[in-house]
Amino acid sequence: MGYARVSTSKQDLERQIDALTTHGIPLESIYTDRKSGATTDRPGLRAVLGYARTGDVIVVHTMDRLGRTVRDTLNLIHELAERGVGVRNLADPIKVDSANPADPMAQLAVVLLALFGQMERTYLIERAAHARSVAVAKGRQVGRPVTVTPAQLAYAEKLRDAGDTIAQIVAKTGITRSSLYRHLPPRPPEPLTAAGPVPTDLHQDEGVTAVGTVVVAAAQSGQGRAPLRQLRVGAGR
Questions:
Q1: For the purposes of burial, counting CB atoms within 10 Å of the CB of 94, is it exposed (0-12), middle (13-18) or buried (19 or more)?
Q2: Higher pLDDT, 152 or 18
Q3: pLDDT per residue over 50-84, tens digit each?
Q4: Which of 140, 143, 155, 224 is deepest in the core (most CB within 10 A)?
């Protein structure tokens, strides 16, 4: 029996099916999937695994049709071997036939091919991550487009400042919780003194740039209230 897989519905199974039929496998014994190999939840794969019996051999065009990770591929081959079911490839440079567990070279070939597939996937992920970082550095939008409008964010910010909880803001605006945490501007900093934020107006005073006056109250003592003293905060020219 045979198994063929492509990752998306836009890809063509014809080349794999032609190779399997040329190998002598009838069409009714070839199971197919149009789904990523990163998951083992594939209807065609489940069907061929469920149909296979002791002494059967599952033939694939290349080993990466079974799985994209070392763990998945090796676990699958091991599970089939325990059931007496072999796996054979057609087009890989290293030929694999796990139907003969006594052959150490066949077992080594299984490990090597699975490892090569994992390395290729790792390189693809690294290249994609590098492309995203370059795009971000150039100011380009990456990922899905932002669907939250400025008006929605302004309304959400107004609700938050009025004391609404995140759950209430989600219900009133329709913005998801994750989008709120990602896009909602942070709260303004709380004032550090009773008089409010330190003034930021600047003026020049003979070699000192004043950035504000901080009023410091002395602690109240048992004899009465201590006088207030003022500290001028500034920096020399």
A1: middle
A2: 18
A3: 999 999 999 999 888 887 776 777 788 888 988 99
A4: 155
Q: Is 9 labeled as catalytic in the residue annotation? A: no
pLDDT in tens, 93-124: 778 888 876 777 777 877 777 677 677 778 88
CB atoms within 10 A of CB 56: 17
Residues 88, 89, 94: CA angle, nearest 5 degrees: 110
211-226: b (≥16 Cβ within 10 Å) or e: beeeeeeeeeeeeeee
What would the two tokens of residue 180 be? 């709120």
Residue 197's Cα: distance from chain center in Å?
Answer: 41
Which one of 7, 29, 36, 179 is the catalytic residue?
7
